[in-house]
Every structure is written in structure tokens, then in C-alpha cells.
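Q: How would the C-alpha cells look for this protein?
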Amino acid sequence: MSTRRGGVNRAAVASLILGRVVYAVNWYSLAAVFAFTASELKLNVSGLGLATATFFLGIGVFQVPGGILAAKIGPRRTAVYGTTIASMAALLTAFAGNLAEIAILRFFVGLGMAFVFAPGVILMTRLLREGSEGLGVGLYNSAFSLGGAIGLSGWAVLAAEIGWRSSLAGVGLLGLFTSVLLWFLVPKDTQRSDFKVKPRHLRLVLLNKWLIVLSIAVLGLQLGSTVYSNFMAYYLESVAHMKVGEAGIIASLASLFALASAPYSGRLFDRYDNTKRLLLVSGVLMAIGVGVAFLGTVYSAILSGIMVGIASGAGFTFGFSAARASNRLDKEYETLSVSWVNSISLSGDFVPPLLYSYVVIQYGYSPAWLFMAALAFVLIIPIFFSKVPSQKHAP
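A: Here is the predicted structure in C-alpha cell form.
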């Protein structure tokens, strides 16, 4: 797949962006409608914590298998297969009758999504002009933020109108539609006939110290984004007694500000040499943003959303751009480098939803926000002591 010499394939880029938007709606749709789900199925915040945790278990554990599969069959086919699996699981969630079924299906939503993100990043960077790789990652992350805003605010309103089951079925059907678009609009993978995944090369990627440090930093960013986006709406509904639609709008602020910051951050990565400083600033901002929510007011929730959004839009763009650029092997391993960073960060993010809901039940919401802020700050510290590779972009 090479479109750089002949210009940008706009239809392919548009299909990837649309797929990423729907991917994000699917990611956050359950959190948006959980007040309705909890009421019907007699659940509390721990139910949302369990469903969120199984989702992250699925999306984290299968990142590396997804990266290996993409190296063998190409990122386009891998992304299509993953989108189909995630969308089918989302569709079936609409028919779930208890928490166990929801948790299992959310695991499969995560499994499918594990085959989508890294291949999508690589497809975007290959479809855009050379020298705009960071911008490609930024645009892809912006699409996620747009979908997150739609999922958290729009799906709450939609659920109030047509029911939570119909709203979840709708995002599943939208996902299946985007998998068809990806199949027909994204150019076919051009895999080398002589290429084989070599164990020695796998070890070079999986034991790369810089990628592991990047993963820990991205985990800190992911932790803050996950806790805010998945729990803020339910928190405002339960504690501040806000209406579902209003709470969803505030919870979507993080996505909206990430939408604005990601493309600019991509350009900044393309032009600025100090990746370490970019990640440090993003991580510290994330920790402060999560901590602000402990004040327990609507205004603190809004400020928290703004800070978390800017930090996640910038930090994820810096982190995944740096992971792709660190590859010094065949280009087929670019997907695996991004998948490996995403795998560690998302597998680790299996724990925070459970920790957060546990601290809420034992001590209350304010201590829970402070605890998660401190954890996010601790996870960014290793970046400070890391050695950044001398070259930014892969050859």
C-alpha cells in the first residue's frame, strides 16, 4: 500500500476516520447508558467497573496477537476482521440479560478492537504524505475523541429516547457498516511474499526498553482517560443528581478537548525533537486533571474534563507516534511496535476500573479521584529517567 507518490487517497482516509469514530462510540456507549442498564438489571458502580475491566482485558491481551497477524496478512485485513468481531459483540450486548453476559460480550468487543487500533495507525501514516506521520496519528486520535464525545453524550440521549438496548444495537450495526467500507475503500495490503515473522525480531520488539517505558507512560495517560470517561457521567448522575443528558455532556468534555489537541500534537511531534519532554508534560497534566475532580462540584468536573482531554489528545499522539518511529526492522513490524505499547497500557488498564469502584464503595468518590491521580503521576515518572532513541522516525 503506497499512495504517497500519487497523493492522498481521501476515500480510504475518510473510511478509516469514520471507522475510528464508530469504534470510539462503541468504546464508550455502555458507560453512557449504564444508568439505564443499572436500573433495569439492578446493578451499581461495581457492575460498571467489572464490565469496563473485562473490556480492557480483551483489548489489552490481544494487542500483540493482532500486531503479529497484521505483520502476516496486512493491517487492512486485520482491521476489517477486528471491526467485525467488535461490532457483532456490541450488537449482541443489546440482548444481554445479566451482568455476566454483558461482561463476557464486552471482553469480545475489546478483543475485536485489539485488532483495529495499531493497524489503523499504520494505515493512516502510510496513506498520508511522507513527513506527516505524526499528523496521521493525531487525526486518527481526533476521530476517536469525536466518537467518544458522541458516545458519551449522544448515546445517553439516544438511550433515553429509544432504550439502552436499541442504542447498543445501533452502534453494533454502524460498526458492521464501517467494516464493509474499510474492505472496499482502503487499498489492499502489499505484503512481501518472502516475509516471515522471525522469533529473533519479535524479541527485539518485545524486549525493547524504550517501548516498555513508553507503555508505562501511556498506561498513566490511559488510566486517567478511562476513569474520567467511563465513570464521570455515572458519578454526576449519582452524586450531583444531574440528568443523564447533562451528565453525558460534561463527561464528553475530555473527548472534545482531545479532539482539538490531537492534530496539533501530531504536527508538534513531526517538528519537535524532545519526545521525552512532550510525554512528561502530558502525563503531569493528566494527573492534575484527574485530581481536580476530587472537589466534587460541577465546575471541578468541567475543569477536570478539559485538562484530561488536552492531556490524552496530546499524550496518546506523542506516545504512539514515538512507538511507530522506534521501529528499526522491516516496515511490517511497525504495527507490532504500536500494538506492544498499546498492549501493556491497556492490559494494565484492566485494574484501574476495579480499583476506582472499590475505593468509591469503601471510602467515597473524592478519595477515589485523588488515588487515581496519584497513580497516574507515578506511572509517568519512568519517562524522566529513560533514554530516548537518537533517531525519531523509522527509515
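Confidence is low (pLDDT under 50) at residues 391-395.

The chain has one domain: 10-186+199-384.

Upvote if useful.
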